Amino acid sequence: MKSVFKILFLILCISVHAQKNIFVLVDHQTGKEYIRKDSVEAAQFLDSLATHNYYFTKLIRAENREGTTRIVFDKGKNFNEAYVRYGDSIQAVSSQKDEFLTHNLDSLRSAIHQKYIDLGYTFSRVKTKYLGLKNGIPQVELSMNLNRRRTIDGFVIKGYEKVPKQFVRNLEKQFRGKVYDPKNLEAISESLQNHTFVKLEKDPQTLFTKDSTQVFLFLQKKKSNTFDGIVGFGNSDSEKFTFNGTLNIAFRNMFNGFEAASLYWQRNPDKGQTFDLNVNIPYLFRSNIGLEMKMNIYRQDSTYANVKILPGLFYNLSSRQRMGIRGNFEMSSVIDSTYTLARDFSRSGLGVWYEFQQAADIELFLYNAKIRAEADFLTTTYDDDGSKASMVQYYLLAEKNFRLGGRHYLNIKAESAMLNSDQELSVNELFRTGGWNSFRGFSESSLLSDFYAYGGAEYRYLVSRQAFFDVFAQYGQVTNKTMQSHPKLYSFGLGFSFFLPVGLMTFQLSNGSQVGEPFSFRETKIHWGIVSRF
Fold it and tell me: For the whole model, what pTM was predicted?
């Protein structure tokens, strides 16, 4: 039928060949007109009606007037409804063997095509063969024109090409050999989303050759070095106005190995000072084994000093998960011999830990999610009498950002730690919590305990991608068996964070107290800080 029509149309074109012509095609059923500039475009338009299931299009009349050829056509019935049978290529993957009636042939063809794409036949095509009419409804056979089945054969890094080789090997280990389809491409993008050190400049691109399928990743190196400075103001236990502060400088990925080194210093209102040094190398000898070294020094004015060293190895389970084993070595010396609440001791043992960390897609937030779990099995030797004590120490942290809708977010955070010993603990063995990074509303390192647990919720409203307001509340408990104390505590506050050219500026007011005690405005703490990435 279509070939007869083409012959008639060709004769018409020849008859007006010498004239400059435009073509107006008129739908007899609707009266709608379609203008085409030449005979080729007019023929293509009429041929395309068959692909939309108008198999019996008829030419009613054609006339030429003053350089315009007017063609009236009747599309006839739309045969999107059809009796369908599958060819051998489709029957091999379908349970449908007999002829069946479909009321939407186009949808069926699309579903079959998508199924083959999901199987890796990216360049497949569904063929439709007209077999005749049955009860006025066309019969068709659907079959597949298949090309080579495509799988992901490798990755090519563009842009930031100095990424660790093990990073690329891990991607290949996860995705190489998998079917090339939209789902796996999306999974590749998600695996790099919120990465600490790199980001995708654009969606993955693909190079198809006769024998391989290469996925191109266009990466950009993130600014991951940070300077974090916090200044706090408040009243001490003696009701004197005090100053405290925190400095945290982290150098990350300076040598393109995803390594990190950080220096941390803190001064609390009671003249205690903390110094931390952390070094992390994730891919030793181009493997998934990493090295972590931590050192902590704490000095309480002229009373006592603690030194702790935590060397360890870990395994990269994925780009976001790690699990490791470490040594735990600690020594404490009492400087003031008249101070009786502390004891000289040395401690050693082994520990295991697990960490999951997902960076935030909003630059204002530090994490989208984080989990940290630690357990240490220790032996302590006391210098004054030579006695020994076995102890178990654990630490848990979980944090997650939830989007409530629009510009509204909720941050949930919980933290807990315990030191269980078969001997009574001295002051210099206890946990020191409180302050900006833990239980806000209390002075830095002012809460001494052998067990603590707290949880908090923080509502955040994004004014823009550059600023947000927050309101928070926390509740928890600390236990000090030595002092036979186990108060329940709460805190609350509000703040404002915004970006300046120098970094993220934060200002916050907070207040905390023990449950059952009256609220005191005098205990309000003021914190001002800046986080700068470079």
Answer: 0.75
